[in-house]
Each structure stands twice: as structure tokens, then as C-alpha cells.
Design a protein that fits this description.
- The protein is of the alpha/beta class.
- Helix content is 37%, strand content 22%.
- It is built from 12 helices and 14 strands.
- The strands form 4 sheets. Strands 5-6-7-3-8-9 form a 6-stranded mixed sheet, with helices on both faces.
- α5 packs across α6.
- The longest helix has 36 residues.
- The two termini are 46 Å apart.
- The relative contact order is 0.12.
- The N terminus is likely disordered.
Length: 438
């Protein structure tokens, strides 16, 4: 896999980002240099994806600065990926703005310009441009790029035969792996990864960790996977309450150091609280003596000048829902008999017999590409059978949460409106769903 053309330093200085009345990032600073492997951790909703957006230059801060040295390119993998339907998986990996396919198209254009030139000067200019593009193509490993892209797709768990299939035939998890291979093959100087282990099995995660360990640029990764953090990161940065705190060592070292820091903060806050109480008690005693007014004023000034000790809130936000009961279904919720389904002429599932009964909680497991998403789509009625039968039980109404939820959302609605549409019942108070801390 070709390396970045140039690696320098990317930094944020005293950056603040506000969403409405909420301060998401409060004067944070971060420097990313050559060889860095930075793992960004923190609870959901704390602003980790916004932080990556800042580093990528896609989010403008309300205050502070972003600086990117030299000609460093920054590449970002996002959680919701473009599908690139109409291209093969291999072409989607190679067809980036800086990638092999773009260079090949440019070479073809210049070759045609040479052929069409009507005078020596025009022909010489086209030949010079062709030579420069050809040199860049070779330096970037253009002739080996297709083989490298196939290795990346295979390493990330996409079956070899699927590399030449239309992306539109892939499952959501497979599309995510294509997007990850595409980002790696683009080889930016600073690589930003948002939850890259989503939809990867253990072998693919191990392959990715090895790739990132040898990556010649810098890597910033948002992840909740502690084993992946230990395998990749040289530095852990926690985002909490709008602030960034750096830790060195592995994930266990981070957990231990954080606990020690929070304990020290709480002890300092308790000491300050006792001191404030003592000063207030002193002021109360001095207030009874007319001759002590100057001393009393000094004590009040001392209290006013005290900066409250901040204690990080390490409680976990949890959703507490109270929803109306769904209509009682028959004993059999959904059933398949001799079900065969797939995409195009290639079946993914063949001759499946399955019955799911009321009250069951079923976990579907299997390697990537085995057809887990296809099975769920089939059960939900989102995918037509090629052969066999499907039944829904009495009063059963399927609901599906997909890997790419953005496709189901209406960008013109507010969050509240979208939630109310999803509830489908005007009697359901969606405002009653609140996050609580415990």
C-alpha cells in the first residue's frame, strides 16, 4: 500500500465549538505529529465525531484555530459511508480524487491531447504534462495499486469474488469495509477513523491493527474497542465535559489513571468545601463585632476569589424509555420455509427454514459476508424471495434498525418530528425519552 506523499503536523489550539446553548468543546488543544497513533475515547454524545470534523477541516470552530502544516492531506472515514453504487468494490477503492483511477484517466486524456496536437509546441506541452503524471503514478505505486486494493479488501473480510461486484449488491457492513479500504488506499498524511472496527470480525480487526501499526503517517481513531486501543494507540485522549485529557499507556493504564485523577479532584473539592465552610463560619463570628469589619471583608473577598475545583463527571448516560405495549401477536412471529434470497443472480441464503416465536430474543452470528443482514432484510420483508415462502404472524409489524440509518431519515424534519414519525402514534410522548446519568 503506497504511503503518504508528505507527513507533517496537524493541530487545534484553544478551540471551542457550541451547538445552540451547549458548549460541546471548550478551549481544547491537540497536536498530531508524524507517527502518532491517537485513540480518542469518551461517552457517546461528548463530541468525538465533531473533534474529527475539526481535524478534517469540515467543522469550523466558534473560537480558536486549526493549523495544518505544509501540503499534508487529511483523510477521514465517517460512520455513514457513501455507497458508490454503479461501481465495482475494487473501482470504489481505487477511484479517489488522488487515486489510481483518477491518474489513469488523466494519463489517457494527455495521450489523446498528444495525438490531437496540431503543432509541435502543443504536443511538447502535452508530453511534458504526461511525463509528470506518469512519474507521480509510478511513485505512488500505481502499477501495484490494484493488487494492493484487493489485498486490503480481503484483509478487511470482503470475499475475493465480491471485489468485482457492484457496490450496490453489498451489505451495509461490506460497504463499510469498502469505504475503509478506500480511505487506507488513498494514504493521507493524517488518517482520521471514526469507529473503524464496526462491522469487522476478529481477523479483519487484527489485519487493520497491523496495517495501522505500520502506517507511515499519523492516525487518529475514535473507538470504544479497548483491545483495538491497546493494539494501536501510542496515546489515549479522553473527551469529557468539553475538555480533552491525554493519557499514556494502554487502556487499563488510562482507566486507572482516570480513576486516580477523579479521586484527587473529589478530594480537592471536598477540601475546598470545608475551607469555604470554615471561612463562612469565621465571617459569621466577625460580623458580631463592629471592629472586625475590615477582617470580615477580607474573608469574603477570599471566598469570592476561590476558583471552584472541577470534578469530571464519570457517570454513564443511559436512556430510560416508557413505551406503550405492542399488540400481542400469535405464537409464531415470523417463519421461513425453503427460503432462497440474494442479490442479482447470486443467492446468499439457500433453502432456509426458520421459525421465531413470540418472546424469543434471537442473536444472529456468523462471519462477515455469510448473509446476516440479508437474513434480517428477508425477515422484515425488505428483500424479495427468489424461492420459498415467508409468513408473518397475527398482528406482527416488523421494525428495522439498519446499519445506514441516514438513508431512513428526512433531513427536512427536526429530531422531534422524526422521532414522532417513527413512533407512528400521536399518543406517544417522544419527549418523555430522556437520558439519565447513573
Amino acid at each position: 500500500m503506497a504511503g503518504p506523499t508528505l507527513v507533517g503536523m496537524l493541530s487545534l489550539s484553544d478551540v471551542t465549538v457550541r451547538h445552540g446553548h451547549r458548549t460541546l468543546l471548550d478551549g481544547v488543544g491537540l497536536q498530531v505529529t508524524r507517527g502518532d497513533r491517537v485513540a480518542v475515547v469518551g461517552a457517546n454524545g461528548t463530541g468525538k465525531t465533531t473533534l474529527l470534523g475539526l481535524l478534517a477541516g469540515e467543522v469550523a470552530p466558534d473560537a480558536g484555530q486549526r493549523a495544518c502544516a505544509g501540503d499534508v492531506r487529511v483523510g477521514r472515514l465517517v460512520q455513514e459511508v457513501a455507497t458508490h453504487r454503479g461501481q465495482t468494490a475494487l473501482d470504489a477503492v481505487l477511484d479517489t480524487p488522488q487515486g489510481v483511477r483518477a491518474q489513469q484517466r488523466r494519463l489517457a486524456e494527455l495521450e489523446q491531447a498528444v495525438a490531437d496536437a496540431e503543432d509541435d509546441a502543443t504536443r511538447d506541452a502535452a508530453l511534458t504534462a504526461w511525463s509528470q503524471v506518469q512519474e507521480a503514478f509510478e511513485a505512488a505505486g500505481g502499477y501495484e495499486a490494484e493488487a494492493a486494493a484487493r489485498r486490503a479488501l480481503a484483509g478487511l473480510g470482503l470475499p475475493e469474488a465480491w471485489a468485482d461486484r457492484d457496490v450496490g449488491e453489498l451489505s451495509g457492513g461490506q460497504m463499510t469495509r469498502v469505504a475503509l479500504a478506500r480511505t487506507l488506499m488513498d494514504a493521507p498524511g493524517v488518517l482520521l477513523l471514526d469507529e473503524p472496527t464496526n462491522h469487522l470480525d476478529l481477523d479483519a480487526i487484527t489485519w487493520l491493527a497491523d496495517e495501522l501499526a505500520d502506517y507511515p503517517g499519523a492516525v487518529v481513531v475514535v473507538t470504544h474497542d479497548r483491545d483495538f486501543v491497546d493494539a494501536v494507540a501510542t496515546r489515549i485522549v479522553e473527551l469529557a465535559q468539553g475538555r480533552l485529557t491525554a493519557y499514556h499507556g494502554g487502556y487499563d493504564d488510562y482507566v486507572r489513571a482516570k480513576a486516580e485523577r477523579v479521586a484527587a479532584q473529589r478530594a480537592a473539592a471536598a477540601r475546598q468545601e470545608r475551607e469555604v465552610a470554615r471561612l463562612h463560619d469565621t465571617v459569621a463570628r466577625l460580623g458580631a463585632k463592629a471592629t472586625k469589619a475590615k477582617q470580615m471583608k477580607a474573608k469574603l473577598t477570599q471566598i469570592a476569589r476561590m476558583e471552584p475545583v472541577a470534578v469530571d463527571d464519570d457517570r454513564v448516560a443511559a436512556m430510560r424509555l416508557s413505551l406503550p405495549a405492542s399488540p400481542r401477536s400469535g405464537r409464531d412471529v415470523v417463519a421461513l420455509r425453503g427460503a432462497t434470497a440474494g442479490y442479482g443472480q447470486q443467492p446468499v441464503l439457500q433453502g432456509v427454514d426458520l421459525v421465531i416465536e413470540r418472546g424469543w430474543t434471537v442473536a444472529v452470528v456468523g462471519p462477515n459476508g455469510a448473509g446476516k443482514t440479508t437474513l434480517l432484510r428477508l425477515l422484515a420483508g425488505d428483500l424479495e424471495l427468489q424461492r420459498g415462502q415467508r409468513w408473518l404472524g397475527h398482528q406482527v409489524q416488523p421494525a428495522v434498525f439498519t446499519q445506514h440509518t441516514a438513508d431512513q431519515l428526512d433531513a427536512d424534519r427536526t429530531l422531534l418530528e422524526q422521532a414522532q414519525v417513527a413512533a407512528g402514534d400521536g399518543r406517544v410522548d417522544v419527549r418523555a425519552a430522556r437520558a439519565v446519568r447513573r
